[in-house]
Amino acid sequence: MRVLLIGSGGREHALAWKLAQSPLLSALYAAPGNPGIAEEATIVDLETEDNDAVLSFCKTEAIDFVVVGPEAPLVAGLADTLRAGGIAVFGPSAAAAQLEGSKGFTKDICAKYNIPTGAYQRFTAAEPAKNYIRAQGAPIVIKADGLAAGKGVTVAMTLDEALDAVDSCFSGAFGAAGAEVVVEAYLDGEEASFFCLCDGKTALALASAQDHKRVGDGDTGPNTGGMGAYSPAPVMTSDMVERTMREIIEPTISGMADSGHPFTGVLFAGLMITAKGPELIEYNVRFGDPECQVLMMRLKSDLLPLLHAAATGTLASVSAEWRDDVALTVVMASKGYPAAYEKNTPIASLPSAGDTTKVFHAGTAVKDGQLVATGGRVLNVTAVGGSVSAAKDMAYTTLDQVVWDNGFCRRDIGWQAVAREKTA
């Protein structure tokens, strides 16, 4: 199978690394890629925002299958263009990608199909939103409706913080994404990330993970795209997985089909495990980043036929096998992230991969023969071990071999699960 992978981040490096191991693969291309992906795939110069250009490349190079990593091309209809052109593609249609592209759309689906989630209201102007917030009180959650690169959500613990978040959205801080705002109830519990593949009618549960969104140790400071993750999430017991599938995933799959937008691809449910059970915080329509990195480290099965089955309506005929080990990844970010940071700082040295460790590239480039950091989140140092503690120790031992003066990381990834192990 000749495969094209779309994307350039740590998620796509993990997918490329896993896809490259498939005996079914005859050629792997990637666009725009990064230096880590270049070790696994042929990088092609392709304007990935131009759907027709991607289709033309697929036709010219006889591509059999396209795997779309990030959400923006899906929301922009890349999968629709490819399917119309006869190319199999892993990823939802633009209509189905609204599950991530519009927070309000997802909330309306939840309301219509009785999917457990926090109470909410949608607003297109600041004053009505503020009046609703004053009536509800804090803590409360304010979300820009559209895609905001993981930065459009404020979990406001005070009324002033909530009102400021509304002003921020409507003043254009998130561009068009903030033209509508969703205000929803604060859910109290433990977060978990749950993934399943979907082919429009069938859902195949994958592994769970837990990520750390705040920039600082002890889950302090502003939210980021994710500073680390581990899999599996201890809070996702077999009972909780079964309930999530029955109460959240399956009604979503049938509801999307019923509404004329059958969902194919990967459904990433951000969950809050509350006293009532699993409740949906939000959906993403692609693998999480950095959750994808720990999932790929634990997946024993060949990834390629799993993704292809989701794309071709044959998911009921496949299954996924997982390592019992824990995988944990630590994000190394540029100093200053998630605020302003210096770009093109040199990364002098990276540790070589071992049997249980791997450094995934998230925001790197090669300039004048030197590996440099080009993004906010730059490297994902990942390890597997027999316990969360063992995987964490191995990840940080590996991370401490990275020579990059402008990098920083949290030192406590997995702290909740480590505490659980010590009391078990």
What's the topology here?
Layout: E1 2-7, H1 10-19, E2 27-32, E3 42-43, H2 51-60, E4 65-68, H3 71-75, H4 78-84, E5 88-90, H5 98-101, H6 103-112, E6 120-123, H7 126-136, E7 140-144, E8 153-156, H8 159-170, E9 181-185, E10 190-199, E11 203-211, E12 214-216, E13 220-223, E14 228-231, H9 238-258, E15 264-274, E16 277-284, H10 291-298, H11 303-312, E17 326-334, E18 345-346, E19 357-361, E20 364-367, E21 370-373, E22 377-385, H12 388-399, E23 407-408, H13 415-423
Parallel strand pairs: 1-2, 1-4, 2-3, 4-5
Antiparallel strand pairs: 6-9, 7-8, 7-9, 10-11, 10-15, 11-14, 12-13, 14-17, 15-16, 17-22, 17-23, 18-21, 19-22, 20-21
Describe the protein:
- The chain is 30% helix and 29% strand.
- It has helices spanning 10-19, 51-60, 71-75, 78-84, 98-101, 103-112, 126-136, 159-170, 238-258, 291-298, 303-312, 388-399, 415-423; strands at 2-7, 27-32, 42-43, 65-68, 88-90, 120-123, 140-144, 153-156, 181-185, 190-199, 203-211, 214-216, 220-223, 228-231, 264-274, 277-284, 326-334, 345-346, 357-361, 364-367, 370-373, 377-385, 407-408.
- The protein is of the alpha+beta class and 424 residues long.
- It is globular.
- Strands 10, 11, 14, 15, 16, 17, 19, 22 and 23 form a nine-stranded antiparallel β-sheet that branches. A five-stranded parallel β-sheet has the order 3-2-1-4-5, sandwiched between helices. Strands 6-9-7-8 form a four-stranded antiparallel β-sheet, sandwiched between helices.
